[in-house]
Amino acid sequence: MSNAHTTVGNAYSAAPLAQPDAGERKPYTLFDLKLASPIIGAYISGVDLSKPLSDAAFDEIDRALAEHTVIFFRDQTLTPEQHIALAERFGEIDVNRFFKPDDRYPQIAEVRKEAGHKANIGGGWHTDHSYDQIPAKASLLYARELPPVGGDTIYVNAIAAYEALSPGLQRTLGGLKAVHSSRHVFGANSRALAESDLQGRVLNPELATQDAVHPVVFTHPRTGKKALFVNPGFTVRFDGWTEAESAGLLAFLYEHHKRPEFAHRFQWKPGSLAIWDNRTTWHVAVNDYAGQRRLLHRITVKGAALN
Predict the structure, then answer these.
(1) Which of 106, 169, 186, 263 is deepest in the core (most CB within 10 A)?
(2) Are strands 42-45 and 70-73 parallel, antiparallel or unpaired?
(3) Is residue 4 part of a domain?
(4) Distance of CA 301 to CAs 137, 147, 255, Å?
(5) Is pLDDT of 187 > 50?
């Protein structure tokens, strides 16, 4: 059994990865784009996001986001107003109900860890806002204050995860829906909140009462590619199944999804901005900077119902 395609103690051998066909993609003419990895992510340079983007430039950025699932910018200098204006190009802002907002700008959620904090926000694999009836389209995360080293974010590609499954499992999953919830994460009975120091950074547990049902396999409206839409943070079970019945298949999908081939680990630097498609990625914030302060500003953009 090949070590290159095994996970979870050599529990299974995965199908070879389908490499993206760059020949099928239109070139980008208004900025420079460099792949972050063969499977996920791209670094974009040659564009100043503090200035208004032309329609043509924005369309290329939006296309890059759809094609690469997460895009990264370095050396950007954004005021909160400019951050908000950029997010609004992607769609209506989805104000987060649970994260403490910036004191002056309710559209901006703080992703903050002080030097004395132990728990970090986003420290488990998840997809932002999958618990909403209408999932978020994208998130724009901008670095404000960083530790000298550490605090990276890892992203994985849900399209690649789907495409690497067997045709039989793809057909099975194509007929399923899954239940997503915020109750166990942000609600009044959340064990994670009760046993951590996230109080004051995660708010409004009384609003964590909604559940949502989404297709397990989602077709991206711009690329037509299919992606898995389940995640360990907010997916509770398959619709019509019990949690016990769902646990085995969900655990398999989660381990499969976290294969390193599907991932890129992004190192934050001052002025860095990451924009990811919430429908086709997972991410996790690495909590490896004890005793250091880290503050990023996140804006989330509303999407549409999944098909």
Answers:
(1) 186
(2) parallel
(3) no
(4) 6, 27, 28
(5) yes
Cα distance between residue 277 and residue 281, in whole Å: 6
| Amino acid at site 26 | K
In a domain, 12, yes or no: no
* Residue 10, domain member (yes or no): no
In this prediction, residue 19 carries a pLDDT of 56
**pLDDT digits over 135-186, tens only?**
999 999 999 999 999 999 999 999 999 999 999 999 999 999 999 999 999 9
Predicted structure pTM score: 0.92
> Cα–Cα distance between 48 and 85 in angstroms, integer?
13
Question: 157: domain range?
Answer: 23-302
Q: Which of 46, 36, 91, 90 is nearest to 68 (CA)?
A: 36
Q: How many CB atoms lie within 10 A of CB 287?
A: 18
User: Is the four-CA dihedral 84, 86, 92, 97 of positive or negative sign?
Assistant: negative
**Contact between 74 and 274 (Cβ < 8 Å):** no
φ, ψ at 272 (rounded to 5°): -80, 145
Active site residues: 126, 128, 283, 298
In b/e form, how buried is each residue of 75-100, taking b as 16+ CB within 10 angstroms?
ebebebebbbebbebbbebbebbbbb
**Per-residue model confidence (pLDDT) at position 128:** 95
* SS3 at position 220: coil
What CATH number does the domain containing 223 carry?
Answer: 3.60.130.10
Burial degree of 268 (CB within 10 A; 0-12, 13-18, 19+) = buried
Give the DSSP H or E segment for 173: helix 167-174
Judge whether 56 lies within some domain.
yes
